[in-house]
Amino acid sequence: MPSLPFIPDTITVHLGAPNDASAPNVTIPFVDYIQNVASSEIYPTWPDNALRANIYAQISFALNRIYTEYYRSRGYPFDITSSTAYDQSFVYGRDIFDNIANIVNDIFNSYIRREGNVEPLYAQFCDGIRVSCPGGLSQWGSVELAQQQLTPFEILQRYYGNDIELVQNVPVGSIEASVPSFPLRIGSTGDEVRTVQIRLNRISDNFPSIPKIVATDGIFTTDTEAAVLRFQEIFNLTPDGIVGQATWYAIERLYASVKRLNELDSEGISLGEVTLQYPSVLQEGSVGLGVRNLQFFLRYLSDFYPSIPSVGIDGVFGQETLQAVRDFQLTFGLPVDGIVGEQTWYALYNAYRGIVNTIPLQYIEGNVLPFPGQLLRLGSESESVRILQQYLNVIASVYSEIPTMEATGYFGEITRSAVQAVQNLVGLEPNGIVGVITWNAITDLYSDIYNGSRLNDGQYPGYEIGGSDIE
């Protein structure tokens, strides 16, 4: 499963039960899919609040299937079925009701989740008359609640509990298989290895013969190999200690199963399990790198949201940062307490990522791109790494202590050494990991070489480089 949920551009629907090989698959825009489901499941004459509550549930259900790779991890070439025995109603080619289409267009990039969890809620629902689903939403019952003037969110709370929240303004992206491009084995590094380590350690709680991995640090060493090997032996996979496609998806399936990710009482996935971006709770008086990261995100978003004031990047959570956090929370419909917990951080990071994802990812000499939104470290492989390497090579032409490298897009030992050299140069912890502040320091140095202390014309909004911003 991907690190964080997003709204897919398209979804592939199997027009029948999962095991009906004769049924065709259709790939359509996700928005069209939700419009179809809503037009098939509920009546357009229902109160607007009931319609919205039901559509939130339909979006979340579909995203749960996609995020957990429920069908893909079982070898099926689709994301969801049209069978109401397994999923939700979808009638290919049907007419769409105008008012339902308008609501979907308004809220399609939102979903329900439990507080403290990352995955979209498995928002089970039923009509509430012919079929009941304890713990799930009653479609006809939602009409009665809407007639009592309950809001869509209050209706959802009645069925799913008071510990749910709506995630809004979720970025849109393309569905890609989570399986690594190359098998993971002794010597492999990166986020995919860390994912395997976290998954296996949780699975081992239910299957104690799988040995625990001491450090879930993204480095594939002998203890990770031992855990993989025992997992393969238990689940009748080739016992080679290597994580290929079959083992990867088996781990994904078992992890989803032991955590009940496809059930209403899911144990849930915490933010710390899928990303190292979240530092800790930040509030007035906090200091350090986490605060600097927070200030960077707030400052960047302030150019796109006039309601969010710009802040300085000094690593001190003072009154200026407190007001910016409150204004951000107010803008995004969050509890306005000025405290950055997981909910606020997730919304902040998602908003930033949504904007950055719209920027063309290519190297243009003299210009810089904003932080790509995910940590770059040993084992990472992407176009963002390639651009990072090009920036480092230019800096190395001026600073002899920084090694040069081939811009391959793979973050290897030379790239890590170059990153550590820059971190030493600017007074950051030389951990060889490129987060927000290190990316800023690298692009600051790179930009100075071409343009002095500021970017040339054509800079991206919100990305202002200043010597006082980076220590």
What does this structure look like?
This protein is mostly helical. It has four domains: about 5-175, no CATH class; about 190-275, Orthogonal Bundle (Muramoyl-pentapeptide Carboxypeptidase, domain 1); about 290-345, Muramoyl-pentapeptide Carboxypeptidase, domain 1, CATH 1.10.101; about 385-470, Orthogonal Bundle (Muramoyl-pentapeptide Carboxypeptidase, domain 1), CATH 1.10.101. The chain contains 15 helices and nine strands. It has helices at about 30-40, 50-65, 100-105, 140-145, 150-160, 190-205, 220-235, 245-260, 270-275, 290-300, 320-330, 340-355, 385-395, 415-425, 435-450; strands spanning about 5-10, 10-15, 25-30, 80, 110-115, 125, 135-140, 165, 170-175. A three-stranded mixed sheet has the order 3-2-4. Helix 2 (about 50-65) packs across helix 5 (about 150-160) and helix 13 (about 385-395) crosses helix 15 (about 435-450). The longest helix is centred in the N-terminal third of the chain and has 20 residues, at about 50-65. About 45% of the residues are buried.
Q: What class, by secondary structure content?
A: mainly alpha
Strand content: 5-15%
**Count of domains:** 4
Question: Can you tell me the residue ranges where pLDDT is under 50 for at least 5 consecutive residues?
Answer: 453-471
Strand arrangement across the biggest beta sheet: 3-2-4
* DSSP summary: helix tally: 15
What's the total count of β strands? Answer: 9
Residues in helices, as a percent range: 40-55%
